Write the structure tokens for this entry.
Amino acid sequence: FSGNALTGIPKTTINSLLNFTFFKKLSVDYSQFLTSKIPLTDANSVWSEASLISNIQFRYPIVFERSRVNLFFQIQNLYNTDYVLGFDINAFGNRFYNPAAKRNFVVGATIQL
């Protein structure tokens, strides 16, 4: 396998984050994660597809006298991309793929006392 690409390691990964703040309170984070194709066997006979995943998060703080509540809303996998979150390298029976969630939503709050 000399000279082959390193199994399980993409040639390129690029992560980016843009943050915008509106009205001095509302914060919006837009993130993207690009991964090039990945060799899944030592022989480099099976490769994954490249993927581009995007997420967005909105945050809004509410300040009280002695505490602060940060409300947030996330959309993960914003464009509903089919992709694999983790690969089984050199998998028995060619079962390399563990599919990731489709578009999903998270709502929550953090409290600082």
User: Anything to note?
Assistant: The chain has one domain: 13-112. The chain has a mean pLDDT of 95. The chain has no helices and seven strands. Residues 13-112 form one domain.
